[in-house]
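Now for today's protein:

——
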Amino acid sequence: MKFNDKTFLKEKNKILMFYPYISSKSVKNVGKTIKSRWIGQGPKVELLEKKFSNKFLNNKYALATGSGTDALHLSYILSKIKKNDEVIVPIFTCTATNIPLLYIGAKIVFADIDPNSMNICTKSVEKLITKKTKAVVCVHYGGLPCDMSELTRISKKHNLILIEDVAQAIGAKYKNKNVGTFGNFSTFSFQAIKHITTGDGGLLTVKNKNDYIKAKRIRWFGIDRDKKYKGTWSNDIFEIGYKYQMTDISATLGLDSLSEINDIIRYRRKLYFRYLQNFSKNSKIKVIDDFNNNKFHAAWLITIAIENKDYLQKKLNSKNIEANQVHFRNDKYTIFKKFAKNKKFRNMDYLEDRYLVLPLHHKLKISDIDYICNIINKNT
């Protein structure tokens, strides 16, 4: 597959951090969907669920949603997390991981990050478990898998629900097994700049049929759509539901990206390893990667840690190269501060002002990576 078409690369001569992947087939195929009867939730959504599950989930139950946040909220409901239940989460993640826990009234318990991967620190997790702990949520930061052996062991030992947030790591593997297949529940994001985009969207995977049936129901107001389509409204609404479904227009975009996902990941990894090659002799740059042979990196982000982060960021920006921090530690947001009062997070404290995310997407060329790295190496 050929990337780097003429439509890119520089917006006003700027090298961008992100660029949405839209298949060349999508303009035609979305047009077909628009002209069909189904533009809301319909057969394209079901087809995306089936094909995604076949590709990444060993045919487990999959449910497409309007966003990754929707999928996370559904996973917390299915986990039977209640008000004041404790849920251990990473201090460093997109707020979408943790905001749905506030809907429920759960007590968020922040765990520190691993300094090499910026994923949740398993030692921190185990120290935080109490009698009130209900679940552990792990986020595969930037496409790099968490330590799923340890997280699985800890969860089983303490009888906890394990939820994987795979928003950034479609296609990543741990010990040759796809991430998203370890947890009791797993969620994915198809937001605009993810490996696969549906404009905005997400997906929930569950392991048993009863959870799947319930998730389908609460995804759409608490109504059993299967009974509705059979021409009867005799089915009662006996629990609160939401409007969390995906549309067929969105699913069409997703299906086209899914059909090309191997090439997308392969090319992103090629760029990622070019960064590593360029930084290999610069001792002042630490690439956020634990370089574990058991992990297959899906290369959504390339993150470095460096002492002169602010200076370097300004230097790159002055050369029209975007570089920034993608997520921020959640305890700094007002809505989360009460959950981290008087607590220290040694690794997060250290990396907070040192980490920087560099451009990585399918529109970049190897020469662009070399250009970026040359500037960084000269200024460190």
User: Anything to note?
Assistant: The domain at 261-378 is CATH 3.90.1150.10 (Aspartate Aminotransferase, domain 1).
